[in-house]
Batch of 3 targets.
Target 1
Amino acid sequence: MNIFIFASFITVLILTTVSLKKQAKLAKNRDKEFWGREARANAVRKKPLDKLNYINIPLEAFPTHLLNENQNVMECINILESLTSQKIVNLTGWSNTDLKLEYGTANINVLTEYDQNYTLLVRTLQKWADILVENGYAKEASLLMEFAITTDTDISRTYYLLADYYASTKQYREIDRLCEIAGGLRSGNRSIIVKHLREKYPDVF
């Protein structure tokens, strides 16, 4: 075998081995850190939840008078009506470990319920908004999406569809506001939403 080729092979082998060992060490440290945080979290006592940012649904401000004959619309309205009596909290971006560290292990089930209510809320709002837009009620749909935005939803379609509405009504400053809100989300969708808005409306920024 050519000495140069052999030397190159050995070099690559050494570099690969070093890289694998480094990655294994990093993974081990991450696991150690995770289980350490988990152990601390499991020891945290139950804390009061009165300071959570609870969400109230202003159903009376929504266009419930439109498309009442549409079964999907009525389903959305009924879901929102049922949620008005439930506790709703946006916990997007919080892991179970984060929640236990902050509020105690005993609260994890109820917090999960609050977050599930939130997920149902924003998905229902967007489903309803989509139907309204499809039927020519973009202005009324914007009311639903604007409320969802105030809760820091990370549903990208809410931002995109609302930005389209603002562009059609020449409310360009509102698109900039959407981008700022999206940039402050705890969600992994944050950068995706911001990138899309900046690329689609470059003259706004």
Note: The chain has a mean pLDDT of 89.
Target 2
Amino acid sequence: MRTAPDTRQRPRIFYGWYLVAASFTCNALTSGAYWQGFQVFFLPILREFGWSRAALSGAFALRQIETGAFAPILGFVVDRIGPKPIIMLGGVLLGLGMVLISYTFSIWSFYVFFAVASIGASGTSHAIGWTVVIVRWFRRLRGTALGIGVSGPIFTGVVLFVLAWFVDEVGWRWTIRGTGLALVCIIIPLASLIRMSPQAHGWLPDGDRPRPQRRPDDAPLDAEAERQERRARRAALEDDSGVTAGVALRTRAFWMASSVFMAMFLGTSALQVHQVPFFESKGFTTAEAAVTVSLVFLASGVGRIGAGFLADLFEVRYVLALMVGMQALAWLYLFVYGSTALWASVPFTIFYGISFGAMVSVRPVLLAQLFGTRALGSLAGMLQATALASGTIGPVFMGWIFDINQSYDVAVFTFIVTTAVGLPIAWAIRPSGSPAERRRRARRLGQRMRGHP
């Protein structure tokens, strides 16, 4: 006879989706106020202090060094104590750093205060902490959930416009000060929602029900119960799969992946600092330049969610190669056709935005397919560290080129070359944990559990 059925009612909305929403909101604010939104403060600070663009860009380059150096430590700590306390502490440090920046009195004080905010932003961002949370709550829908969870920056344009309005009304110092306080008050409650695993609450990843317990004399399960049993097997398989960080770091696949993201991040890190100044150098008004930032991040939402969805269906290297190719085309368009009017910048913002967004959601999926989830935090930190190594060069290089030539064209041509170099490397990466391979392994495991050879 069968055991009594599990009568617990399935929640209308799986709790994992609340965590996805929290990640989305936290990253929308962090990106809009700090990672991307700080462009709004770039020129006001230059005008007040009279520093060169290269000098001010140096703080952003140091941000990349600091973030890259801190990422492996952050990933290791997240794997040990969980992401919740890290995200909370990051929110406090980010807010404190922003408040301190409002009291800047010299280039060196700006560097120090900016470093405090950078450490905090690393803790709150989707690169490690929120990624680990979402990966633990989803498996079949992992790519899609990650794509949505890291898509918060699509609202960067909205936050940027709000900040620009406040800068005009009350000045950059009061705007940064208020932003820092607001970040603390919002990020901490969002982080408090984090729960480490669905199993602790009686569910499997993706909201699947646990398989019913059966005795040897039980009758065969119906089709729905069989599906639940297969899902449980796949979940158990993925929980047990994976290698340690030390093993992964000795593989060629990890360093090939790192090379791809290094090639791309040289240009993306530079544009994060110089996108508004770049389009202003082409004759755009500040408002028009801000529109291009908004368009990039709207398009990035398509890339983040779309790449995550595709990664659930196809081998992730195909998505990775498509992403690299689109970004190379974006830089090529910007170099060949330029942008003398807002409408002419739209093709660039679409191609660049989609590829930039895809880069964010593909990284954790690629790591999970290559090495499993056993040390995902540590590996995400290491991959970010190696990628950000090139990000220390990008902002200063682009600012230095402008200081010499009064034009960014040489920098843009350089980014065409470096991005194109990453294309064949991306194509050569062959994860052993592709969706098709995971299904085959799950079938083999199911056969062993049923006693078949």
Note: The chain has a mean pLDDT of 82.
Target 3
Amino acid sequence: MNKWLLFFIVCLCGVNLLGQQVPFYNHYLINPFVYNPAFTGASDYINASFVRNQRYSSFGSTAINNYLTVEGPVSKGNMGLGLIVAYQNQGIQQQLMSSLNYSYRLKINDNHNIRFGVSAGVLDNRIDYNQINAQDISDPYLTGLRPTAPVFDMNVGLVYNWKNLKIGVSVPQIIGAKVKYAKERSRGYYQLERHYMMSLEYDFHAGDKVIIRPNAIMRYMPNVPFQYDVTLMTIYNNMLWASATYKSDYAVQFNAGIRVWDFLRIGYSYELLTGSMKAYSTGTNHEIFLGFSFNGKREKEIQVVENPVIIIDESAVKQRDSVQKLKDELESRLKEIMEDQAQKERLQRERDSLTNLSKVTKTDTVKPKGKPQEVIPIAKGSYFMNLDKSDSPDGYYVITGVFSSKQNAEHALSRCKGEYPDTYLMINKANNYFYVVILYSLDQELATATYKEYKVKKKQKVWILNYRI
């Protein structure tokens, strides 16, 4: 068999069509972590995703790309950890990739932050010799090839966030390792080229339930035509999504998906070839997506109070003791100057005032008038403001979630708006977290009734916050 012909086949199978070595995936808007390690742990949840991608079935040897990812936040969301396992089968070549991902968030202020990410792992490249149609199977060059060629690989990336804007840059295969199949150094290898990728994304909120998300991703590799994708995605109530994508000189892609039971997402995409590939392939190009999300870090800061609890902090105890001591001293002085009636009356008034003060500071609870009610502790160390920077008033707040990310808080807000139209967000300036409020009232009975109704109907976390400035 001609040596250079085999070498050409090995190199061709080592890359995707259009010259891209990094596989094309269609659900990167749902799981951007697969292309850019800086997205590792960027949400408030632990996410697991599985994708099966199938292309070019009409060539007689379908290209299969599968991946499994798991990622989530650690250290209060300032860092993220993740794992990717991917398998590709393209012609005579197979590749198994596994890598660990790490990201770090640099917070500039409430609206600006930058995430840096890196992934490192192994690419195990294999050749299926049973699929090689060779004229001379005893060719010493063919028999001298290794069946497997593992290499070390690294990817780097960063993401800049400003309110609803995300700008990402990543460099897959930054090392540029050589995949060597032949025992001789000069033959039987191909190069893992660096890919330069950039993404732009912005969320437009059309009302309380609809998000319109345009996205663009650009890919560049030396000596290969520049490639870009342009996508328009619509998300309804954080439950349904649909998108359309144009891939330059390649295809038009359509995606649709649904969220089930709050933790499961199912998506499907279909590609209709339109570019130069259309003349060579008429097969079905499709991708299936399954995603699982679980509660991660910092879901709440104030615990749900199921039973009456009396909270006495150390400062209140000290104040009560000092008041009691002063009260005793006044009583002693009062006995000594009983003959002075005017002074006696003045001291009596001071004594009564201090007695009332000691009763107020004995506990940090508010007992409403009327029939006995459940005692709800006052929130400690909090300073709440509305999003328009005005102070939140005293009263009872029924809370369904606390988030450090405004975007995640708005998603939770949109889910509650349907049944609780008065739902809104407020921010705790003590920790810069966003609170989802389904009811504010000065009436404790109304707050308790709403709390019980939500808990029975939704079977989700909810609690009452008693706030006093």
Note: The first strand starts at residue 45 and ends at 55.
